[in-house]
Amino acid sequence: QSVLTQPPSVSGAPGQRVTISCTGSSSNIGAGYDVHWYQHLPGTAPNLLIYASSNRPSGVPDRFSGSKSGTSASLAITGLQAEDEADYYCQSYDSSLSGWVFGGGTKLTVL
Amino acid sequence: QVQLVQSGAEVKKPGASVKVSCKASGYTFTSYYMHWVRQAPGQGLEWMGIINPSNGDTNYAQKFQGRVTMTRDTSTSTVYMELSSLRSEDTAVYYCATERILGGYQPLDYWGQGTLVTVSS
């Protein structure tokens, strides 16, 4: 069981909008620690998608956005494209564990 | 540009140890922490630990304490992760990844290509 809970899978048709949730607790997201999101394509290294809950590194399309509220965070992808099909992970710091934690990952399928 | 180049795939027997290297280039080695993250087949990303290349300080995930050792060689800008008492469940792709030393908990912005470690008798 991951400390950060994500839905195992989400799907959407091209052009649609999907959201991926990341639910934590008072020792991680709820404690105010930043949430980061990564996109992971099979056979490649994970790629930073969103940092500090809602910021995009240069080169990441503005179709990707992030938000945080309370003990949860969300990643939204608008205008879905076939190339967005990948696994997505949230990450934060957990004070109870004194370490970094990842969500279990969400597989996005573009129908 | 920042590059993290990891050592090649390894096949180990249960009970053995493995040492994976991660050679950094394109930035000041002591300006970024180095994390190790692994992904077992069909599983998600799992954080293993972090090393401060400046002073060698480490912080390991509770799950790996006593079995993992992270070290660095500043003369070659290389970080090492050694995992001992290997079991089949340690079969995974192991990644090194950098975190800029800025205070707080920054994202992992650069990643190595991954090293497959297979544990099999």
What do these coordinates show?
- The complex is a heterodimer of chains A (111) and B (121).
- In chain A, the strands form 2 sheets. In chain A, strands 1, 3, 4, 7, 8 and 9 form a 6-stranded mixed β-sheet that branches.
- Chain A has strands at 9-12, 18-23, 36-40, 47-50, 64-69, 72-77, 86-94, 99-102, 106-110.
- Helices cover 0% and strands 44% of the residues of chain A.
- In chain A, a hairpin with a 6-residue loop joins strand 3 (36-40) and strand 4 (47-50).
- In chain A, 41% of the residues are buried.
- The radius of gyration of chain A is 13 Å and the shape is globular.
- Chain B has 121 residues and is mainly beta.
- Helices cover 0% and strands 52% of the residues of chain B.
- Chain B is built from no helices and 11 strands.
- Chain B has strands at residues 3-6, 10-12, 18-25, 32-39, 45-51, 58-60, 68-73, 78-83, 92-100, 108-111, 115-119.
- In chain B, a hairpin with a 6-residue loop joins strand 5 (45-51) and strand 6 (58-60).
- Chain B is globular.
- The mean pLDDT of chain B is 96.
- Chain A binds chain B through residues 2, 33-34, 36, 38, 40, 45-48, 51-52, 57, 87, 89, 91-93, 97-105, and chain B through 35, 37, 44-47, 49-50, 59-62, 95, 97, 104-109, 111-114.
